[in-house]
What we know:
By secondary structure, the protein is α/β, with parallel strands linked by helices.
Amino acid sequence: MTLFHTLGFPRVGQQRELKWALESFWAGNSTQQELLDVAHSQRLANWQRQLQAGADFITAGDFALYDHVLNTSYLFGHLPERARHGDDALNQLFLAARGRTPCGCTSHASEMTKWFDTNYHYLVPECRAEDEFRLQPELLLEEIRAARAVYPKVKAVVLGPLSYLYLGKSLDNSNRLNLLPKLLPLYSELFALLKAEGVDWLQLDEPILALDLPSDWAQAFEPAYHTLRNNGLNLLLTTYFNGLEDNLSLALNLPVQGVHLDLVSAPEQLTPALDRIGPYKVLSVGVIDGRNIWRSDLNAIRESLLEAKQQLGERLWLGTSCSLLHVPYDAASESQLPDGVGQWLAFAQQKLEEGVLLRDALNNSDVLSSATWQAQANAIQARRTSTAVHKAAVKQRAADAAAFDWQRDLPFSERAVLQQQLLKLPLFPTTTIGSFPQTSGIRQLRRRFKQGELTLAEYEDGLKAEIVHAIRVQEQIGLDVLVHGEAERNDMVEYFGEQLEGVAVSANGWVQSYGSRCVKPPIIYGDIERPQPMTVRWSEFAQSQTDKRMKGMLTGPVTILKWAFVRDDQPWSATAYQLAAVLRDEVQDLERAGIRIIQVDEPALREGLPLRKAAHQQYLQWAVNSFRFSVTGVAADTQIHTHMCYADFDDILPAIQGMDADVITLETARSASKLLATLQSSPYNNGIGPGVYDIHSPNIPAAEAMLAILRDSLAVVAPENLWVNPDCGLKTRRWEEVIPALEAMVAVALELREEVKVTEQA
């Protein structure tokens, strides 16, 4: 019989229970045991959901208090040396992730970057040639034992050895692949322990097989997996996020008992996989979308699998395309969505039910006449025919925009002169990325308004008071370009989703971004329109409160697209141009309101880059052009900023230059040397602000470290083009952390101005 399993499950809790428990523990308001009690209850609830839905395995090893890659570093004794403080596992994990523990230990936090092309962030393993590994299986084995106490058929999950090393970074320029012989024996030792615990199947994730792998990495798979064979475990080699293409034969020929392929991302893999699978291996097909939230067309999926079912029989497994980490918990709680959108959704709970229903239909055709099967088919048809989805005029404007190459009227060199004449900014101008702390007072204000305890006027008066407070703090600190602080915004994408037609916002659609940081992606279900300006009155009010320049803040088209759940019935590029059109209108409205510095954030530009290089150019063409469409309607002396963070930019620097923003701010505090090396080989000619301190750590930055980043930057950036700013927005920090950090940052900028003045006088 065909089986169904999931590759992983969300872990923050349907009501973000783990988030609140983590933040309480970090603040010193609860004990470690209280944190673990919450974590274990969420983990248990995940397993119970899988069992109650009818999954054939429960999946264990996918849970993490902060990040599963960080867990892997701990599992193999490979945390950074600076984080190995004491014997407590949680303190070590949090020291590596956050740079601080409740016990008062501080350190430099590890670098974070995006997990492939998702909006999830992982902690990057740090590698040196002399590294040694040590198996520390206690956390994983505890989870396996707890799972087996619930249900004996447990499928364990571990990140594979090659993917672990590949996703790391070398601190000494050594080849990380040279560490593989040291790591493989520990995997073998771990396999023996898992077998002794009663584990039959191990899901060994090797997602790098979906990338353009260097030949030495691809060639390392076969000898590595021959080393790991004959361990008594059934190994399911798991890939996701893309098709394997030239690595398909490699994966299918490895000495493992099963291979998982993502057929949502690359359905064309199925036919060649069936030709090459061999007579004994299990083929697990990821046919339930683990990254988007639309109901599955089970009729179409079943038809596509009939040949595989006939050929493989019980060796055909059904699965989610990837871990369900990337989707919310349960769409049943969404009762207030417009235009019938709720019936079209499948969150993690519904995806379990879809997978089981599809499995049953493949095993027994009588299921096809059931009410449940028909209800699924009806929901698919209702979405296809809904009049709320398609608007001809919106489609036409986007199509017209896509056909044109958008550019500013003047080149940057000429714009910069006009902008300086208007703005009169000092050398090394200081600013922030946009948001200021979302305090308990702001959250309480929002909660009271939603619950009807405050009128709209009272709510907005409260927001204005918060904006005025943010402005006064910035003036006192001495920042040169101010922001209004975004007190009115719950999230940089959700806020815009709430104000656009064709976009819905869920009540409980939380997903994890990193650690305790959760986001609620809006749902783009139809053609997009802007009924009215979205940010203008807040920026206009803020500017009226200060004589300094106020920066308008928008989220760019690609980032809204990438950080939303996007309709799957048209190309992403078409949706991007629709978003760019409404942002273009907003940018022009801000300019008319007197806001002459406008930031349009695109942190997801690099994240959206396809995993295969052959598809890069096509993506970058429409992604960059849609950004330019959103900003090119303003005068030459209106200064356009953009912001990017937590991604590798070296391979898309020409595209970033092609965006032609007047100023770009970047995350560099955790990866300054890498960005500066990139700029040395590929100079960037417009204004640039390399982030001088890490806002994801609660530590107050050292002035010396910030000054070092700026001095190094002057080797590759002209002084008149260099800005001074933090890595990212400050909404997750507390004012007690923000104020001294920004004071130190401004002092550093003043010191650097004096250094340049002295040099010029000499």
